[in-house]
């Protein structure tokens, strides 16, 4: 039995002492200091035994007992009472508490109460097991009784059929077996000498006049012998036979029959005759072969289709998929499409399959899916309803065409205009700021104000740096830029990044947490490109904090350390965060979470710079919690 116990008491000392005693008795002890916390632990852990103080602030022991019993009546609850709480103790017993112990608690009395609770649990489980076994036995006996009744009914029917056949056999005349002439199968009667006594019209027409011929004459293969033909086996065993047999027709061709035989006994119970009924299944076999061929062609068309094809039910579970889909998205049946395509936990908005289930009409939609290899695939999705014989929609077929290359070209062309527009506005703003800096310098020189001159120089320098970075972004996008590697100290790059980002943070309500210490070592990098990448990621962290208005304050962290021959940069924020779908598309070209405010180049170029340094970048984020970027740059090439 699972020895898990929840101890609830508002006094920490009692919880500690009792917890030690209960642990010595072999129990796994969970604790709670009030009724609210106890309910939370109970719902999460579901312990079989609860030991609770009867008097507590908030939810007292009696209320806790009632709530626990309402949620799980089988939980054993033992109350801890004081000497003056006997009325409450008796009330708890009326509310189905298992027992109560009084303070100060003696280990022997507590152990007896717990033993009683454990015995009740064991007894209840045994009773449940016995009940389930009894129910299983009742089901088995009932099924056996139904089977016996069915067999009895079959025996009665066969006895009636044998009696009727006996009458027919006794009345064989010129119009023998006249009641079977309209049947669409071959009917014949055979005697103990394995001779055909009578046949119906269809037998005579298709298989010839076999009256007087041996019972095995028409068969081919192993059944073309007296003791192996269906009638011979029936006389030998005394029971009916069922088999597939090949027969030879009068024109020399062969046909496949499904043969059934039934013994016919006289009034003394002696087996005198055998009734043989056969159905021509060659047409059925031909139709089955055609069906198999059609299914193979359908499966081949299904698998060789140049698009992704799936069949899904109303719960959006994948019931069938073609070869191309299985190669790119996996072959897990009954997985839900939104989990397979997008790693989501709920259906997509405006799902075309759900619309088709609702109105039965075809629908189209465009979406972005993620393959098993992590590739982003643009899909044009179309749906078609699959109906049963009554016209009800039972499934929907989805055909998804890969239009990734088309969309990349369209995005590239459409984004060029946005890029040029955004860059022109950005450069225009920076030039305006640069003019302002120059004006400040000139004004400071005219007025003899060195501080104003210095401020103007700093402004002009920052704007010049930003213009240069913007131009570099364009160059990185437009063509491959040659890396200009140089050996620098890690601290010098850190200092460059801090010098750029700190002035901006001073004007914002964001706490700057720079945890770099003294990082020793050198590495060979393109200083300008790598610095630009780090600043770009830091600026994204700042913007994520500014977008989050739910928190009174935010912080951005910048940490650097040496690990396994790599310089590891960690940039974190507690901003808006991202869901899984956005993280998967984060580094895609022209993808921006800022709408018209972003160009979609920053993080794309940052990752490109890091990869050209043989480094890696990863992101870990949760919506509403924040985001952490981890960048690993090798110290040696």
Structural notes for this entry:
The two termini are 60 Å apart. The protein contains 17 helices and 23 strands. Mean pLDDT is 81; it is low at 172-176. The protein has helices spanning 12-24, 35-45, 61-71, 86-94, 107-170, 201-207, 230-237, 282-304, 323-329, 337-342, 352-359, 404-447, 450-478, 490-506, 527-547, 580-585, 602-612, and strands spanning 4-8, 28-32, 49-53, 76-81, 99-102, 186-191, 196-199, 219-220, 242-248, 254-265, 271-280, 308-312, 318-321, 364-370, 376-387, 393-402, 486-489, 510-515, 522-525, 554-563, 566-573, 616-622, 626-634. The chain is flat, with a radius of gyration of 43 Å. The chain has 5 domains: 4-126, Response regulator (Rossmann fold, 3-Layer(aba) Sandwich); 178-286, Beta-Lactamase; 305-398, PAS domain (Beta-Lactamase, 2-Layer Sandwich), CATH 3.30.450.20; 408-478, Orthogonal Bundle (Helix Hairpins); 486-634, Heat Shock Protein 90, CATH 3.30.565.10. β15 and β16 form a beta hairpin. The protein is an alpha+beta fold and 637 residues long. Helix content is 46%, strand content 24%.
What's the average pLDDT? 81
Across the major sheet, the strand order is 7-6-11-10-9-8
Derived from helix and strand composition plus strand pairing, the structural class reads alpha+beta
* Alpha plus pi helix count: 17
**SS elements, strand count:** 23
Q: Kindly report how far apart the N and C termini lie.
A: 60 Å
Overall shape: it is flat
Low-confidence stretches: 172-176
CATH architecture of the largest domain: 2-Layer Sandwich
The count of domains is: 5
Largest sheet: 6 strands, antiparallel
Strand content: 15-25%
> What does the radius of gyration come to?
43 Å
The CATH topology name of the largest domain reads Heat Shock Protein 90
CATH superfamily of the largest domain: Histidine kinase-like ATPase, C-terminal domain
- Specify the helix fraction band: 40-55%
CATH class of the largest domain: Alpha Beta
């Amino acid at each position: 039995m699972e020895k898990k116990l929840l101890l609830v008491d508002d006094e920490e000392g009692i919880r500690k002492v009792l917890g030690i005693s209960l642990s010595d008795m072999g129990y796994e002890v969970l604790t709670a200091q009030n009724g609210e916390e106890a309910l939370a632990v109970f719902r999460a852990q579901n312990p079989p035994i609860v030991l609770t103080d009867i008097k507590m602030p908030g939810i007292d022991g009696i209320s806790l007992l009632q709530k626990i019993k309402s949620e799980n009546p089988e939980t054993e609850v033992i109350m801890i009472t004081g000497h003056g709480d006997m009325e409450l103790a008796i009330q708890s017993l009326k509310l189905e508490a298992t027992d109560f112990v009084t303070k100060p608690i003696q280990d022997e009395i507590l152990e007896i109460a717990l033993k009683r609770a454990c015995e009740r649990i064991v007894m209840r489980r045994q009773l449940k097991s016995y009940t389930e076994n009894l129910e299983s036995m009742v089901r088995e006996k009932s099924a056996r009784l139904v089977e016996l009744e069915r067999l009895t009914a079959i025996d009665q029917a066969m006895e009636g059929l044998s009696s009727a056949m006996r009458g027919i056999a006794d009345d064989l005349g010129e119009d023998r077996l006249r009641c079977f002439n309209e049947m669409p199968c071959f009917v014949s009667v055979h005697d103990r000498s394995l001779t055909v006594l009578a046949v119906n019209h269809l037998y005579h027409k298709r298989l010839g006049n076999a009256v007087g011929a041996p019972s095995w004459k028409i068969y081919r293969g192993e059944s073309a012998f007296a003791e192996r033909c269906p009638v011979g086996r029936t006389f030998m065993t005394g029971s009916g036979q069922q088999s597939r047999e090949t027969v030879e027709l009068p024109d020399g061709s062969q046909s496949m029959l499904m043969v059934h035989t039934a013994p016919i006994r006289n009034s003394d119970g002696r087996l005198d005759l055998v009734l043989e009924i056969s159905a021509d299944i060659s047409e059925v076999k031909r139709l089955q072969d055609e069906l198999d061929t059609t299914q193979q062609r359908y499966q081949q068309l299904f698998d060789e289709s140049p698009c992704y094809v799936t069949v899904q039910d109303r719960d959006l579970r994948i019931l069938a998929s073609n070869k191309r889909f299985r190669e790119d998205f996996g072959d897990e049946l009954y997985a839900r499409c939104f989990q397979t395509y997008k790693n989501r936990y709920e259906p997509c908005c405006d799902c075309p399959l759900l619309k088709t289930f609702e109105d039965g009409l075809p629908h189209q939609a465009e979406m972005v899916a993620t393959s098993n290899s992590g590739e982003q695939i643009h899909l044009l999705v179309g749906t078609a309803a699959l109906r049963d014989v009554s016209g009800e929609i039972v499934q929907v077929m989805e055909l998804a065409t890969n239009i990734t290359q088309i969309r990349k070209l369209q995005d590239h062309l459409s984004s060029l205009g946005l890029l040029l527009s955004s860059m022109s506005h950005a450069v225009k703003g920076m030039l305006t700021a640069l003019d302002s800096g120059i004006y400040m310098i000139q004004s400071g020189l005219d007025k003899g104000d060195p501080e104003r001159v210095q401020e103007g120089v700093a402004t002009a320098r920052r704007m010049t740096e930003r213009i240069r970075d913007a131009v570099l972004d364009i160059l990185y996008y437009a063509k491959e830029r040659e890396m200009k590697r140089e050996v620098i100290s890690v601290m010098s790059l850190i200092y460059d990044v801090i010098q750029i980002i700190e002035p901006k943070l001073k004007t914002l309500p964001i706490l700057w947490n720079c945890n770099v210490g003294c990082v020793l070592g050198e590495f060979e990098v393109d200083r300008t490109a790598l610095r630009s990448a780090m600043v770009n990621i830091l600026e994204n962290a700042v913007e994520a904090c500014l977008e989050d208005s739910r928190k009174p304050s935010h912080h951005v962290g910048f940490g650097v350390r040496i690990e396994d021959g790599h310089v590891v940069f960690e940039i974190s924020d507690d901003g808006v965060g991202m869901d899984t779908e956005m993280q998967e598309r984060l580094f895609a070209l022209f993808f921006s979470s800022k709408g018209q405010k972003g160009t979609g180049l920053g993080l794309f170029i940052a990752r490109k710079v890091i990869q050209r340094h043989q480094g890696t970048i990863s992101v870990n984020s949760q919506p509403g919690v924040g985001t952490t970027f981890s960048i690993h740059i090798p110290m040696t090439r």
